[in-house]
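Deliverable D2.4 — example input (structure tokens):
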């Protein structure tokens, strides 16, 4: 089931979700019934995209064909500054897990099944919604995710220092053979 999210700048409702192509305009959900936090600073929503928590996702076609890319995950620019937006692109169908490893080797889950959530930890995008995703826009200044750290039950900031961030995607992210994962590296420069 595909959804189109429409966002308002007023405080209520933060968003309304309707089925894409559905003739009725009755909301399926609103910020009061959602796990989305209206206090999180998010990327601005554009036509044909969805904004989920602190990342914006697009289902519009990307420019992979022009770039002749073979990986299932890639970026437009491998250097990211704190005042820029990171564009992660995917070649759907996508596996159920996406994560990122920071310069210190700390791992963060970005995409996972919501039934695996504990405490206030929530996926940025649930696995079921990630399957057909083609683009995710990330604001490094506000992006938070599951830090996969014992005793921490709330999403934490990911881009905390300059260095190499490696995004990994697969059916299981905890594997001994890195060839089983799709990955892309981004050099982050924090101002």
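Example output (designed residues):
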């Amino acid at each position: 089931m595909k959804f189109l999210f429409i966002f308002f700048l007023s405080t209520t409702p933060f968003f309304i979700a309707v089925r894409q192509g559905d003739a009725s305009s009755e909301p399926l959900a609103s910020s009061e019934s959602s796990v989305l936090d209206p206090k999180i600073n998010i990327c601005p929503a554009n036509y044909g995209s969805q904004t989920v928590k602190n990342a914006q996702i697009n289902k519009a076609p990307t420019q992979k064909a022009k770039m002749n890319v073979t990986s299932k995950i890639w970026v437009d620019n491998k250097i990211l500054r704190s005042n820029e937006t990171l564009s992660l692109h995917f070649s759907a169908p996508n596996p159920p897990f996406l994560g990122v490893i920071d310069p210190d080797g700390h791992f963060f889950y970005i995409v996972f099944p919501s039934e695996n959530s504990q405490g206030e930890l929530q996926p940025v995008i649930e696995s079921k919604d990630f399957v057909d995703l083609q683009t995710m826009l990330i604001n490094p200044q506000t992006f938070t995710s599951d830090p996969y750290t014992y005793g921490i039950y709330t999403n934490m900031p990911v881009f905390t220092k300059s260095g190499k961030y490696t995004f990994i995607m697969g059916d299981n992210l905890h594997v001994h053979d890195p060839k089983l994962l799709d990955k892309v590296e981004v050099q982050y420069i924090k101002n």
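Residues 64-67 form the longest helix (4 residues).
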